[in-house]
Amino acid sequence: MHQSSAHLLSSTFYSRISSLLRCNEGLTLVIQNSLCHQKLHYCTGLGATSSSILKQSENSLHPRSNIYNTTRRMAFMKTPCNIGDPVSEVETPSLLVCLKSLEYNLKKMTETMKAFPGVNFRTHAKTHKCPMISRLQIKSGAVGVCCQTLTEAEAMVEGGIEDILLSNQVIGIKKLRRLAGLARYAKIAACVDSEGNIEDLSQAARELGVTVDVLVEVNVGGNRCGVEPGDSVLKLAEKIKSLPNINFKGLQCYNGKIQHIRSAADRKAAVGVVIEKTVKSIKALKDRGIDCSYITGGGTGTFQYEASSGVFTEVQPGSYVFMDVDYGKNLDVKEQFVSDFQQSLYVLSTVQSVAAGDRAILDAGLKAHSLDSGVPKLSGHPDLTYYNGGDEHGVVIPDGGLKVGDLVWLIPGHCDPTVNMHEWVVGLRDGKVECIWPVSGRGPGK
Amino acid sequence: MHQSSAHLLSSTFYSRISSLLRCNEGLTLVIQNSLCHQKLHYCTGLGATSSSILKQSENSLHPRSNIYNTTRRMAFMKTPCNIGDPVSEVETPSLLVCLKSLEYNLKKMTETMKAFPGVNFRTHAKTHKCPMISRLQIKSGAVGVCCQTLTEAEAMVEGGIEDILLSNQVIGIKKLRRLAGLARYAKIAACVDSEGNIEDLSQAARELGVTVDVLVEVNVGGNRCGVEPGDSVLKLAEKIKSLPNINFKGLQCYNGKIQHIRSAADRKAAVGVVIEKTVKSIKALKDRGIDCSYITGGGTGTFQYEASSGVFTEVQPGSYVFMDVDYGKNLDVKEQFVSDFQQSLYVLSTVQSVAAGDRAILDAGLKAHSLDSGVPKLSGHPDLTYYNGGDEHGVVIPDGGLKVGDLVWLIPGHCDPTVNMHEWVVGLRDGKVECIWPVSGRGPGK
Questions:
Q1: How confident is the model at residue A75 (pLDDT cuts 50, 70, 90)?
Q2: What is the predicted pLDDT for the residue at A77?
Q3: What is the pLDDT averaged over residues A61-76?
Q4: Is residue B224 less than 8 Å (CB to CB) from chain A?
Q5: How much is the average pLDDT of B95-114?
Q6: How confident is the model at residue B72 (pLDDT cuts 50, 70, 90)?
Q7: Does the structure show a pLDDT above 70 at A50?
Q8: pLDDT band for position A431 (50/70/90)?
């Protein structure tokens, strides 16, 4: 490969470098050593497919992208086991998914949504951050995915997903260029709630020569992002319509907090508030002649209420594929624990110390699961309680007869941030490893 | 390269593959696609240095290591900025370290330890998981590092650290083989608290033809791992002495919980209990003729008490390089907040939404910092409070006049698990990026 080609390669976006890897014909690595500012290029032969990708890259090069402002490093990541291994061979702490339960949940969602023929479901990738699972969800009927971060969206495009709603604001021209770059390869929509951000998004899309769909995020009660219902929504929609390369698509009306209200009646009532604020926003638009035919929102805890509202055209369940201790505390209309979906996600841990008669210590602590929604439960040990033992330890009281080396399956307190701590999801069927999927969208969300 | 060489390469330990990368002469990638069970080998020329490493790898091959049971994948990691960038160019959320404060802390530790001439300090890498920082700590006088996980220890060896205490139990023969493998390249010590684990460790060390130093972990009050002081310690020391390829080195006597006791007098009293239990253990050994000349423990909150005890020969401070909100709550003997060390670590975040007069929303949530020890503080904004806004959001109340796009520097509540969420530490000096260091020991701790 010529030096000029290496230069081009190194200066392209991450997504294209990833494509090069996928083309299986050759490889270029750019390794920057931050200490000595030295760059090393390793090249192998490139065939036809790669050359065409190179050409694509050349066309999409932004003037600011050059070899000196794209710093990447390479890493090898070791999987915690191998395909075909029995679960006893999986190094811990590891994230496991029971494939039968995952498949049950996929099927259950498809069946549930049949009751709402005018409403699509767009599964939320923030739960798993794993393109392979998104692809299974799309195969089971989802129209596309939601992402909460640009990192997730990049991972999804690189993993073959072609319809993505970034259900969050992306701030700053650098990130917006990354977002616009994705629109070359997939249908991309993003949420906004401020005028300057809309201007920046239009600029980035114009620079890249793409069009990005835009949703106004409405504060439907969560008091986080989003503008107030009514006139503020109208103002932003008009702003979007006034600028090039962005297309007003509809409204994002999601309240995360109400997903975890325990009583079914209370959850339904809370969705009533969401719908009221949504309707107010639609009316403000309609009164000024702006038709809004796309309303999206709702999560695992409430999506059936949004879906049956006659207002929402799309729902965004995410956690249903995995479930967790927190969602397991929600009650259904019969005041029973919700049982629509099965627990499919676990953190596998090993007993590393036992003080007989007192406690057992697990090797899974704060770095293996998130405690924000409470501690994990020990699957199959309803009599044992997990206590936070710090970054690398869990304390189980009583010891329950556990021995050093025993495996313990933990049900995470909160699935999304727990998955974020792991590089791999190990898929199990009948006690054996069937697949090892990279959680390629993980990270703080840059 | 011959296929047999490729086979050898792919079947060696991670540490040697990493070495190959570092030799700058050639490169082999093994990419396993878990879907089709296909492996692809990309090879470039290998020079003399690489060949010698290959030979080393061959010698250290374990019979169970072959091409089919070592699954690795490659990833590119994009840094959030480039060297020389102003801080305004750093994509958020990112982990920042102010190098001047880091250097102040390194120097302050060296000076503090001069008061205890018979006591070494071994800095704890669990805080930063970053070999570059360990190297700075060793240059400033540390005798080596502690690691809490095998993943951290592997990263440290690969990053050039040659004296490592694994201050935790490593369970299972597979992991113990990885540990023993490291002893080929560095001085390795590990902690134990059960007989079967000691047998496994001896077996792994014997298989690899290495000797591993072993410490008995004593439960000095933390009620986590460790055996009770006295006879149980003696029993394990004798077990260690009875087996080949492991060497009884001394005692691990650390209580993490007491680091965070607020009053200096109460912390000192709690160390008194630690020392009492340690002395009891030393006596039990001495009564049976076992000399114990190595006692290690103590953290950032208490190390001066352990160092002045006349019992401890080594202390293990970690958090002092960074500090955090939690350690900032500790009081000194004058009932003032501790001020020995400076805050050097921050999470840089961007304001993504503002509801004027009410709240500002940051792009740093549960995936950018750990809330286990409380929420982060906004540096320079003592009047503003951070509230948990979920995985990707922080809610700041009141809005403090913040505008969309403003950068906010967050002081993490707890430094160790916060660092664990980030791939890079961005080093700043005078507002510009001077270095970008990989947090190569991060992860759940496999």
A1: low
A2: 74
A3: 42
A4: yes
A5: 98
A6: low
A7: no
A8: very high
CATH 3.20.20.10 fits domain A101-329: yes
Indicate the residue of A34, A79, A438 with minimum beta-carbon distance to B435: A34
Give, as one character, the DSSP assignment of residue A228. Answer: P
Q: Measured between beta carbons, which residues in chain A are less than 8 angstroms from residue B349?
A: none
Question: A230-274: per-residue pLDDT in tens?
Answer: 999 999 999 999 999 999 999 999 999 999 999 999 999 999 999
**pLDDT over threshold 70, residue B271:** yes
Q: What would the two tokens of residue B351 be? A: 């304001």
A87-93+342-438 matches A101-329 in fold: no
Q: What is the mean pLDDT of chain B?
A: 86
A23 near B CB under 8 A: no
Domain ranges in chain B are: 3-59, 87-93+342-438, 99-329
Task: Enumerate the residues of chain A whose CB falls inside 8 A of the CB of residue B396.
Answer: none
Chain mean position to CA A258: 19
pLDDT value, residue B388:
97
User: Could you tell me if A139 lies within 8 Å of chain B, comparing CB atoms?
Assistant: no
Q: CA B41, B42, B43 angle in degrees (round to 5)?
A: 115
The reported pLDDT for the residue numbered A167 is 98
Total residue count of chain A as it appears in this document: 446
For chain A, say whether B256 makes contact (Cβ under 8 Å).
Answer: yes
- Contact between residue A389 and residue A359 where contact means Cβ atoms under 8 Å apart: no
Cross-chain residue pair B395–A71, CB shorter than 8 Å: no
Residues A268-287 have a mean pLDDT of 98
Distance from CA of B328 to the nearest CA of A (A): 19
Return mean pLDDT, chain A. Answer: 86
pLDDT of residue B69: 30
Is B370 at the interface with chain A, CB within 8 A? yes
**CA B371 to CA B425: how far, in whole Å?**
19
CA distance B213 to A330: 50
Please tell me the class of the B87-93+342-438 domain. Answer: mainly beta
Report the greatest alpha carbon distance in chain B: 73
Of A353, A368, A446, nearest to B194 by CB-CB distance is A353
CB B365 within 8 A of CB B390: yes
Which residue among B89, B354, B417 places its CB closest to the CB of A366?
B417
Partners of residue A37 in chain B, C-beta under 8 Å: 83
Helix axes B150-158, B131-139, angle to 10 degrees: 70
Lowest mean pLDDT among A94-108, B16-30, B209-223: B16-30
pLDDT digits (tens, 9 = 90+) for B130-186: 999 999 999 999 999 999 999 999 999 989 999 999 999 999 999 999 999 999 999
Q: How far is A76 from chain B (nearest CA, A)?
A: 5
Q: Does A36 touch chain B (CB under 8 A)?
A: no
Would you say B369 and B413 are in contact if contact means Cβ atoms under 8 Å apart?
A: yes
Contact by Cβ (8 Å): A412, A421: no
Flag if A77 and B80 touch (Cβ within 8 Å): no
Mutate to test the interface with A, among B13, B395, B402, B404 (most CBs of A within 10 A): B404
Say yes or no: A72 contacts chain B, CB-CB below 8 A.
yes
A73/B81 Cβ within 8 A: no
CA distances from B169 to A403, B166, B245, B277, B288 (A): 14, 8, 17, 20, 25
CA B341 to centroid of chain Cα atoms? 19
Q: Tell the CATH superfamily of the B99-329 domain.
A: Alanine racemase (3.20.20.10)
B349 touching chain A per CB within 8 A: no
Q: Provide the residue type at B399 as one letter.
A: D
* Token pair belonging to B35: 């879907």
- In contact, B424 and B391? CB cutoff 8 Å: no
Instruction: Give the pLDDT of residue A73.
Output: 64
- Burial tier of A325 (Cβ tally within 10 Å: 0-12, 13-18, 19+): buried
Q: Please identify among residues 275-314 of chain B the ones whose CB lies closer than 8 Å to any CB of chain A.
A: none
